[in-house]
Specification:
There is one protein chain. The chain is mainly beta. The protein has a single domain (6-217), classed as Sandwich (Immunoglobulin-like), CATH 2.60.40. Helices cover 6% and strands 29% of the residues. It is built from 2 helices and 12 strands; from the N terminus they run αβαβββββββββββ. The chain has helices at 12-19, 58-62, and strands at 27-28, 100-101, 106-118, 128-139, 145-146, 151-156, 161-162, 164-166, 177-178, 183-191, 200-205, 213-217. A hairpin with a 4-residue loop joins β2 (100-101) and β3 (106-118). The longest helix has 8 residues, at 12-19.
């Protein structure tokens, strides 16, 4: 949704995956790095999807006169390499202040949530509120984990709607390979109506071996 840089080409595969979410909107990464640590990810330059053309509702006016699409009942898993994933590990959903921990030692944690306003200008940029989620992935397993095709989806409200991703200077995708005992961090930003911040779910689908992690609750 921000500037059109050449780096945006790396997200083509993820955009295709996000289209599978019934026209849904998601933040994602797709790069070819071999290593990843706490500061190894690079900012996202992925262009956003096209807003729907439905008539705006009160919540849509708050997110820049755009009506976000309804979310599917279940967020489908990301198809990587043309194969339907068969996860070996799953973890219970957690509130935003608690880590998601998988049986093999892998964990996800939200270490920061920041509210703001979209201030970028240019073609395709829609003003409104934005919520930034700082995520930390820790590999406590015995094998490296690839984070080159991570898809993060935010759903808000009841009925649930897919929050529009915001790509700006705060956006930072997961990327590369995380060795055992190492960690990686990322920051995903979404436009969520202020009135809906008390009912938000963030799905983090990071590979085919683990079922997507799910954080849910109040992010105000």
């Amino acid at each position: 949704m921000t500037h059109a840089h050449p780096a945006a080409l790396r997200a083509v595969a993820c955009v295709a995956a996000a289209v599978l979410l019934a026209g849904g909107l998601a933040g994602c990464s797709d790069s070819s790095g071999d290593t990843a640590g706490p500061d190894s990810s690079s900012p996202s330059d992925t262009p956003s999807g096209t807003p729907t053309q439905e008539s705006p509702s009160p919540s849509a006016i708050e997110t820049g006169k755009r009506r976000d699409p309804l979310a599917p009942t279940e967020i489908p898993p990301v198809i990587r390499g043309g194969e339907t994933p068969q996860p070996s590990f799953s973890a219970d959903p957690q509130p935003f202040d608690q880590p998601i921990e998988y049986p093999d030692g892998v964990s996800l944690e939200v270490t920061g949530i920041k509210q703001g306003e979209v201030t970028d200008q240019g073609p395709g940029v829609v003003g409104g509120p934005k919520t930034a989620f700082k995520l930390v992935f820790t590999n406590g397993s015995k094998k490296p984990v690839e984070l080159n095709q991570v898809v993060v989806t935010a759903v808000y409200g009841d009925p649930g709607r897919l929050a529009h991703p915001v790509y700006d200077t705060q956006s930072q995708d997961f990327a590369g390979r995380v060795a055992p005992g190492k960690a990686a961090q990322a920051r995903y930003v979404f436009s969520i109506p202020r009135a809906q911040l008390g009912n938000v779910t963030v799905h983090v689908d990071f590979d085919g071996l683990h079922a997507a992690g799910r954080f849910t609750g109040d992010v105000a």
